Amino acid sequence: MKNLPDTDETLLIRTDHSDEAAWQALLTAVTTPNTNGFLANIHVVDDVAYSDLTTEQAVSVARARGDLLIVADTTALTGPEMPLLAVLPFHEDEDDDYDEDEDEDDETKQEHGELRVIAAELWSIENNISLANMDWEDFVNAADEGVFRGF
Questions:
Q1: What is the pTM of this model?
Q2: Residue 21 has pLDDT above 80, yes or no
Q3: 30 vs 81, 111, 139, CA distance in Å?
Q4: What is the residue range of 106's domain?
């Protein structure tokens, strides 16, 4: 896999290159401040080298970076709300915070979280996770059928 940019911004990786108009609409949605002026701090990676990046590969990239990663896949580019895939690796000392079942043993703890977030609300997850203002579980608990649409 091609090396990703070295940046402090959250990466938004385009993995579906089948519809340029849909991609431009998604970019407009994520780069337009909301009514309160909030905007996701992202670095867009639009390179065919990442076409068809699998979820497993995205998780691997996120884990290597240790940061939140956003994926613009087929689901994001074809859904009316443009639900992007957000992937967050959990650090060892954080596992207990994210464990839904506290009785689970160490072998079954999740190593990462995945959640869909509509493009218009990407700023909320990106800003709050990157600044550690909120926990991942806050967004998971607010999600409707696995998609975060805001609070």
A1: 0.85
A2: yes
A3: 12, 27, 18
A4: 10-148
